[in-house]
Amino acid sequence: MKLFAAILLLFWSLLAQAQMQAFKLKPHQKQWEQGALTWNDFQGILPSNAIGSELNYQLVYSPGKVRFADSTFFIYQVYGFVDVNRSWVNDAVKTEGELKFNQAKFNLLEIHRRELQAELKSPIRSRDAHWAAGRTLMNLKNAMDQFQTAAENGRNATLVNAFLDSTGQVLQVTGKTTQPEFRTAGFGCGTHLGFGYRGLGGTLGRHFTNPLGWEYNLALAYQRSLLNLDLSLGFNQIDRQYLKRPQWEVGMQTSMLQAGVSYGFIAADKNKVRFTPFVGVAALGIQPRNQYLNGINNTSAFYAGLNIDFKFRKRIWLLPSAFNPKEIADYGLRARISVMPAKYDHTLKGTSICLTLAPYIFSRIVKSKKLY
């Protein structure tokens, strides 16, 4: 059964990874950012009876990731490049004018690449990405045909120079890819699992040592409100005998379990830190680790506290995927304090103060942008 579960988990992991296969440029594929064209970029075999030159180019999009400051964006990345091994030139036309003619076409390719990238960097549907890419390729083909016809395949030097200048100016204005823009839907979730230290006060603290153990939280969010499920399991021992449990000897190992539900409100959410106070109701029980002895009945009471999230990195997934919704998630370290009164009877009561330190993740759903 465990083997089947492991195989199933691996299967889904491989499927999710397959959707994230990024395009990798090969050494013979030259992008516009790598510099102006030279005749060394025309290494293709010259067809028989061929004249002039041929610039072989491609425009493709693929899942990828880009980084801006402390954020990693998973978006569609667009690549426009010339294939050096497929581009060719007849030695008889290796002139400066012919090279400028091909550079103008290279500029035109880069302009359309940036236009498509501007559309695909938003959180869009896969079919919209397909239509946007198809439309851009058609526009590129039409623009290339119109330029080649107007420039008389490079023979009209005046038009080639003018077109080279105008496309160069456009490329200076458009610049490089900017940070993707997106809107959240308001819904989200978060979780943490870490270490907790619980300080016990009153007679509760005199009978039991302070427990150290695990702290778990699951939160469902909408806008600034959160619904929390909190679970805590601490391990301690008896420090002084409890008269109502004479069979509980000093030094006996015990466990302290707290389960609660609370409402939280994000009071402040800054770039590097988030403050979330919460209040709820919880049950706190004590159980000896000797299975033959009965524990102390759970006590229920209100509890309140504060989460302080120190954000380290952000992950923004804007790609359409069956295995990963579009979301923005931040990762970091959570410091948490909660206070709860505990009263089992008039002889065993006090205050429980829990300090937690845990890695956390908190994410929100991102809205898709419809292009068509």
TrEMBL record:
Alphabetical keyword list: Signal
Signal peptide range: 1-18
Domain of life: Bacteria
Protein name per the record: DUF5723 domain-containing protein
Organism: Adhaeribacter soli
